[in-house]
Amino acid sequence: MAPPVKPIPDGYSAVTPYLICAGAADAIDFYKRAFGAEESFRMNAPDGRVGHAEIRIGGAVIMLADEHPEIGARGPRSIGGSPVGIMLYVDDVDATVARAADAGATVTRPVETQFYGDRMGGITDPFGHVWHIGTHVEDVSPDEIARRAAQKSGQGG
Q1: Whether 28 contacts 42, CB under 8 Å
Q2: What is the chain written as a DSSP string?
Q3: How far apart are CA 32 and CA 55, in angstroms?
Q4: Which pTM value belongs to this model?
Q5: CA 137/CA 113 separation, integer angstroms
Q6: How far apart are CA 130 and CA 108, in angstroms?
Q7: Which CATH superfamily is domain 18-154 in?
Q8: Alpha-carbon distance 42 to 36, whole Å?
Q9: What's the pLDDT tens digit per position in 76-114?
Q10: For position 157, what pLDDT does the model report?
Q11: What's the rounded Cα separation, in Å, for the pair 143 and 9?
């Protein structure tokens, strides 16, 4: 008897981002240059568009495909932007944001050390997806985060 099929396949987590891109093949190349992504799977549709692909960044799987408006799959540039961002933790946020900018991303938030213990920066990739990139630099308790947030907003000391 075959072992039971796992509801979440090995190597995947319960939540996996799925990005729709106008130009998914170019997006895969961008993610390789900017984030060191490794492509693990690609299936093209009969018309040549990427029907489904998977990349890994730091061990996490991200699925992506080209726009397929006929089934409602449109990327952020086609719908006026995206309210969703992806948080990416890396060993060196400064180098990663610089590499992403060199690869064609727009820096939307300069890298700074934040009161909650992360050094953070933000980019929008050439396909309209928003990335929050950080390196954790300090363990901060919830009480200390609250104190620092109040201090930063001018409401406490």
Answers
A1: yes
A2: -PPPPPSS-TT--S---EEEETTHHHHHHHHHHHH--EEEEEEE-TTSSEEEEEEEETTEEEEEEE-BGGGTB--GGGTT--S-EEEEE-S-HHHHHHHHHHTTPEEEEEEEE-TTSEEEEEEE-TTS-EEEEEEE-----HHHHHHHHHHHTTS--
A3: 9
A4: 0.91
A5: 8
A6: 9
A7: 2,3-Dihydroxybiphenyl 1,2-Dioxygenase, domain 1 (3.10.180.10)
A8: 17
A9: 999 999 999 999 999 999 999 999 999 999 999 999 999
A10: 53
A11: 38
For residue 96, give the amino acid letter. Answer: T
DSSP 52-91: EEEEEETTEEEEEEE-BGGGTB--GGGTT--S-EEEEE-S
Token look-up 């987590």 returns 13
Q: Delimit the domains of the chain by residue range.
A: 18-154
Is the separation of the CB atoms in 140 and 117 below 8 Å? Answer: yes
Question: Do residues 24 and 49 lie in contact, with contact meaning Cβ atoms separated by under 8 Å?
Answer: yes
C-beta of residue 138 within 8 angstroms of C-beta of residue 117: yes
